Amino acid sequence: MSATVNSLRDIILSHFGSSAVLCSGTYPPCIPQILVPREQFEDVGWLMKDAGARLAAEWGVDETLLGRQFAVLACFAREGEYILLRCNIPLEDPTFPSLSKKHTPAFRFERQIMSLMGLTPTGHSHSDLRPWIKHEDWPADAWPLRKSFDAAQRMPRVAGEYRWVRAEGEGVYEIPVGPVHAGIIEPGHFRFQAMGEDILNLEERLGYTHKGIEKRFEQLSWVEGARLAGRVSGDSTVAHALTYCRALETLSGTNIAPRAAWLRAIMLERERIANHLGDIGAIANDVGFAFFQFQFMRLKEHLLRGNQQLFGHRYLMDRVVPGGISADLQADGAAAIELELANLQTEFEHLVTIYDLNASLDDRLRSTGLLTAETARELGTVGYVARASGQGLDCRIQAPFSPYDQIQPRMVVLNSCDVHARAWVRIEEIRDSIRLLRGLLATLPHGEILIPLADVPPDSSSLAAVEGWRGEIVYWLQSGLQGEINRCAIRDPSSVNWLALEQAVHNNIVPDFPVCNKSFNQSYSGNDL
Amino acid sequence: MLRILHQIFRTGVVTEPLPEEIKAELDEVGCHLEKAIRQRFHRSLVIREVDAGSCNGCELEIIAMNNPVYNCERYGIQFTASPRFADMLLVTGPVSVNMEIALKRTYDATPNPKMVVAVGDCGCTGGIFGESYASLGAVANVIPVDAHIPGCPPTPVQLLLGILQLIKIRL
């Protein structure tokens, strides 16, 4: 057997031969974009499946302003290797072959492409073409991502019905939950079919926080776009703004200063610690342990105040900007962070010991909300959801950018696949982020923090992926003929991980849903866009 | 169990007095507050939070209001799961088209007299999302609003102050 593994690019080029075309004007050069014939688009599905690649994202693009037609792009990833495959779609026949038979994440990606871009997947698995994000009271021909759609219009509400999955039989009942939930959280609808206390099925219906973000990008300048990216999901403001800026800087050929790169990583790790702290407390609280909730909230609050003092914003919004960062660390900042980390570490380890030794937490969290490794892989999950189910995915490690190529994170992978594992991955990641922060501070370069953004070339595109606290975030940017934003496609980790929650709650009891949900803690806003 | 108790005693009470610069204002509000909450709200002001389409940034700070440092319950402020028990709706925005009906229904389900506070730059004006096919912009475009708390997101102190000031006006 040959030990060499062919690159995804070689696999595609050798299969399609001369009918595959390597596109130009795509960045970075290590992520090729290959055009394949539309009728053979389905082939890329099984080729990538056989190669062990996952479908990271799939989206549609309207290129009529660039003198072309529609296109669908699929981004596949295998460890640190990314590849974009595209098929062009004529205006008069807006259909494309579905990838959903081989790649489950395509299930919702393609419903979304159909709902918002008006491109119909053919051969979609289960023939499930119900609108997604687009609610049933929108006009059927409202496709907001098309250039011909006026973003400022008020759509009339039309009569329509969403066809829920049904379960029938003696003793089966339904529980509708949302969109306004009991706690202080985002809106979404969950429909349970249950028998006694056991959940037979859960169906999510999201889209309530759809604010037209992708369309809005097309009306903004590149610099304003970073502010919007920082508000795709407020809890991941650093990670989203960073992914957007990395894609933009790659597209324009802007090389940011080393100090800016280091400080961006410091902000990213601080965001990871803050969110993980909040989540661990909330998971414990959902099994009746308010003690941990308040203790961890207290530690999180200290970190947020540190952010305010160091960088001028509790959540670091608008601190990552195109060309660098907008707030420098002052001369005494490094010492302040060292002191803060020392206190945090002592307090945190103290709490982790209590957490670890608590038998009732063990009893409630272990074997609850199982997401098997196979399902996690099949659904293309990312982030701590994937790592708690045995998937070694972390693009800080697999596709590192400066400074992660020098200060390397440790991959935290657990195999118990339950709520406990998803909590414990967070604990280990907090420990590792504290270590990373110390390493980053020790090697923090001096110099500039912001350089001017170079001009964006017309009709070009770029892709960036960054491991936020929730998992891999993907941005694809495309410029128009004047170098303006023609398309900004976003894939938050939530877009793939939400599907996994539906699987993880099977055969759990209804009262355990909140803790299962909290262990995932996916973003509604990042999913709905 | 001993470890938990030890940690609780070791931590002590971490709730802080609010910052000096707003303390004068708060004391004024505060002295009315006890009376107001006792008379008008039967000893506690009950809030239903509604995310009508926000990026979840405002939710982070509203949750932080409940943390032990800000401890909004010391003023008798509680959050409820049902609008039917609520005196006040705390609404974050922008109001998405897909949340318009749910927000109106929540408003209708809240008994009179009720107060509505629009939270965050987006709840106040629509913010960076503006008004579009998917966003109706400010909360006031959809339901009547009594007070605005701007900020992106407003800090827990700004939130507390905004809520307390509205109660004072309504005395």
What's the short version?
The complex is a heterodimer of chains A (529) and B (171). Chain A has 529 residues and is α+β, with helices and mostly antiparallel strands.
Describe the protein in words.
The complex is a heterodimer of chains A (529) and B (171). Chain A has 529 residues and is an alpha+beta fold. Chain A folds into two domains: 8-127, Beta Polymerase, domain 2; 213-528, Cytochrome-c3 Hydrogenase, chain B (Orthogonal Bundle). Chain A has 17 helices and 16 strands. Chain A has a five-stranded mixed beta sheet with strand order 1-3-6-5-4. A four-stranded mixed beta sheet of chain A has the order 2-14-15-16. A three-stranded antiparallel beta sheet of chain A has the order 9-10-11. In chain A, a hairpin with a 4-residue loop joins strand 14 and strand 15. The longest helix of chain A has 28 residues, at 258-285. The radius of gyration of chain A is 23 Å and the shape is globular. Chain A starts with 7 loop residues before the first helix and ends with a helix. Chain B is of the alpha/beta class. Chain B has a single domain (45-169), classed as Rossmann fold (3-Layer(aba) Sandwich), CATH 3.40.50. Chain B contains six helices and five strands, in the order ααβαββαβαβα. In chain B, helix 2 crosses helix 6 (156-169). The longest helix of chain B is centred in the N-terminal third of the chain and has 22 residues, at 20-41. Chains A and B meet through helix 4, helix 5, helix 8, helix 9 and helix 17 of A and helix 1, strand 1 and helix 3 of B.
CATH architecture of chain B: 3-Layer(aba) Sandwich
Most extensive interface, residues per chain? A-B, 57 and 49 residues
- Output the number of helix runs of chain B: 6
Shape of chain B from CA axes? globular
Task: Look at the structure and name the CATH superfamily of the largest domain in chain A.
Answer: Cytochrome-c3 Hydrogenase, chain B
